Amino acid sequence: MTAFTQSWTDTFSSAYADEPLANLSWFNASPGLELIKRVIDGTLKPGQRLIDLGSGPGVDAVFLSVQGLDVTGVDLSPDAVARAGRWAELAGADVEFIQGDVLDVPLPDSSADVVNDSFVFHNMRDDARSRYADEVHRLLKPGGLFLLNSFSDKMVPGTGPRRITSEDILSTFTADRFECVALYVYRNVPTRTKPDQLHWFGEFRAR
Ligand SMILES: C[S@@+](CC[C@H](N)C(=O)[O-])C[C@H]1O[C@@H](n2cnc3c(N)ncnc32)[C@H](O)[C@@H]1O
C-alpha cells in the first residue's frame, strides 16, 4: 500500500530534485508556529526523542534539534533527505535524516516521546489512514505525544493539498488508542497563492 497517490509522490520527488526551496508551496523557511509555542510552554523540551514523519526540507526537525530534542526526520524522497541534511549542516545541528516510508518506518517500537506530522496526513489516501495511525501509535511510548498540522476544510477550496475535516482526523486517531488533548484551527503564515492558511493543529496522547 502506498501512502499518497502516485502523482503526489512524483510531485514531491521531482520538486526536491529540481526546485529552489523558496519555490515550493509548502516551504516558508519557518518552523511550525504551533511547535514554537510548545517549545515556549515547555511541552517540547530538551532530551525528548522526536520522530518527524515526512520531514521534507527539515525545517521543523532542525529547529527542534537546536532546542535540544533528539530528532530523526523520515522522508520518502532521497532528495529531501539530502537537502534536509544540508540545512542541518548549515545550522550545525545534530539531526538524523533517513529515507523511509511513513507507513513502514524503519525505527523501533515505543521509541519516541513525540511524533510530529507537518502537512503529511492531509494528502494521504483514505485507505492508508488507519495503517498510518497504527504506525504513529507503534512508534510512540505510552503517553507519548502526536502533533498534527494539516490543511483544514475552513480554507477556501483550490489547488494543493486536500482540505480535511475534524471528523477525518478523529476517525483516524481514534479514542481507543489516542486521547485528543486539543484540536483547533489556527491561522498560519500566508503564502502568495494561499493567503488564508487556516490549518488544523492536533495534539494527541498515545494510550
Ligand atoms: C508537504 S511536504 C511537508 C514537509 C515538511 N513536513 C514540512 O512541513 O515542510 C510532505 C512531505 O511528505 C513526504 N512524503 C510523501 N509520501 C511519503 C511517504 N510515504 N513516506 C515518507 N514521506 C513521504 C514528501 O516527500 C514531503 O517531503
Automatic annotation (TrEMBL):
The record's section on SUPFAM superfamilies has: S-adenosyl-L-methionine-dependent methyltransferases
UniProt domain Methyltransferase type: residue ranges: 52-147
Q: A single GO BP annotation from the record?
A: antibiotic biosynthetic process
Residue ranges of coiled coil: none
| One term of GO molecular function | S-adenosylmethionine-dependent methyltransferase activity
Q: Which InterPro entries match?
A: Methyltransf_11, SAM-dependent_MTases_sf
Query: Superkingdom, according to UniProt?
Result: Bacteria
- PANTHER family linked to this entry: TRANS-ACONITATE 2-METHYLTRANSFERASE-RELATED
Task: From the Swiss-Prot or TrEMBL record, give the protein name.
Answer: Methyltransferase type 11 domain-containing protein
